[in-house]
Amino acid sequence: MSISQAIEKVEARYAHQPEFIQAVKEVALTIAPLYDAHPEYETFKIFERLIEPDRVIGFRINWENDKGEVQVNRGWRVQFSNALGPYKGGVRFHPTVNQSVLKFLGFEQIFKNALTGLPMGGGKGGSDFDPKGKTDNEIRRFCYAFMRELHQYVSKDIDVPAGDIGVGGREVSYMFAMYKNLTHEYGGVLTGKGVGFGGSLMRTEATGYGAVYFLENMLAAQNDSMEGKTVLVSGAGNVSLHAAEKANMLGAKVITVSDSQGTLYDESGFDQEKIDWLKKQKEQSKPLADYVEVFGGEWLAKQKPWKFKGDIAIPSATQNEVDEDDAKLMVENGIKYVAEGANMPLTAEAVDYVCLHRVHYAPGKAANAGGVAVSALEMSQNSVRQYKTFEQIDERLKAIMKNIHDCAAEASEKYGQTDNGYINYMAGANIVGFKRVADALVAYGILN
Ligand code: GLU
C-alpha cells in the first residue's frame, strides 16, 4: 500500500478524527523522498503500520466532587509505538480531549521523541475532565481516580506519562502518589515529578527554553540572533511563560501573551519581574487582564496576538489556534520566524501560507521537543538514582535542541527540500524522526 493509499484509508476509517488525519497527512506528504529511497519501508508496510496505534486503552473515571456528587469522566491512553523505547508522552486534562486529539498527539510524539535521539517510544493520554474552576481537593480526587485506572497499563519500562495541558507538577504528584500506593514501587513511572522526590531540575522550564534554543539555531542558520527581536507569544501556560522568559534573557522583547479570554499586550516587553508576576497569577488561576492595573499595557478581550508587528512568533497555546487568516496577519506584520511551542498550533493552511512566504517555520515536534527530552533525562536520573545540576541539564538541553535543528536542516538539504537557503524544517524533522523509527521496525521484522 502506497502512502497515498494509506492516507485514503485513514481518511475513510477515521473520518470523525480530523486532528489525527491532519497530523498523519503532514507527515505523509513530507516523507515521500525518504520513502522512495527506501523500498524496504514499503515492503514492511511501515507507514501503514505506524498510523495505527499499538493500542488505545479507554476507561471510565468515577470521582466525587466537593458536594459529594458522583462525577463520571472518560480517560484514555494511546500507546502508539514503542519501537525506540517505552511509550512516552503527556497526559492532558481538557474538555476538548477525545480520541482524535490524543491520537494526533500520540502520533506526533513518536517522531518528536525519536528526534531527541533519546530512547523513548510515543504515546499520549488524558481525559475530558475540565480542571477549570475545580478546587484542589477535587483535582486530587480526580487525579487519584485517573491513576487508579491507568496504573494497570503503565510502568517505568512500559509507558511513562507526564504532564500536558491541565496537568502540571501538582497533578503529576497526585498521580505518582496513587501509583506508588497501588504498586508499592518508587520509580520513574511518571516524569515532571517535583524536584526533591524524583523530579529533574529544569523539567518545568524545558519546553519553553528548548523552543527558544531551537529558534537561536534557526536564526544562526540565517546569520541572525535573538538580540533585539520583537516576539509574539500566545498562551500563558508553562510553555509560553518559559519561552517568554528565555527570549527575554537572550535580549529579545516579548510583547504578547494570551489565554482563552484574550491577549495581553505590553509594548515595553515582559521583563523578569513581569514574567514572575504572570507565573504567579496563572498559578492562582487569576485573570491575565489584572496585569494592566499593575504594569499598564493593554488587554484585548477575545483577541489573538497576531495583529501586532514583530519578528518572531511562538504559538504555544493549543492545536489549530493559528488559522490561515492569522498566518496572513503574521506575514503582513513582518514575522520572519515561527517556532511552535504547542503541538500543531498552525492549521495545515496556515503552515502552507507561512512557508509560501518563506517565513522560517519550525514544527512543534522539533521546536517543542525540549520538554520530553528533559523527561528522558529525568527517567535516566531516576534509574541511576543520582541527580544532575540545573547547569548540567541546561547544557544537555541546548545540545539536544541544536542536534535536532542540525539533523532536520541536513535532511532537508539531503532530500532536496532546501530552496535557496530556505530550510524546510517540517520535511527535515519528519524525515529524521520517521527514519529512526522505520529503521528500528525494519530490523524487528513484522512485530510491532
Ligand atoms: N506533553 C509534553 C509534550 O507534548 C511532554 C511529554 C513528556 O514529557 O512525556 O511533548
β-strand percent reads: 15-25%
Low-confidence stretches: none
Oligomer: single chain
CATH architecture designation of the domain at 205-362 = 3-Layer(aba) Sandwich
Give the SSE order as H and E letters.
Answer: HHHHHEEEHEHEHHEHEEHHEEHEHEHHHH
Helix content: 40-55%
Query: What form results from the Cα inertia axes?
Result: globular
Tell me the major beta sheet: 7 strands, mixed
SS-based class: alpha/beta
End-to-end Cα distance, whole Å, is 17 Å
Strand order of the largest sheet: 9-8-7-6-10-11-12
The named CATH superfamily of the domain at 205-362: NAD(P)-binding Rossmann-like Domain
Please state the CA-atom Rg, rounded to the nearest Å.
21 Å
The ligands bound in this entry are: glutamic acid
Number of helices in the DSSP assignment: 18
Q: Could you tell me the mean pLDDT?
A: 97
| Count of distinct strands | 12
In the CATH scheme, the class of the domain at 205-362 would be: Alpha Beta
CATH topology of the domain at 205-362: Rossmann fold
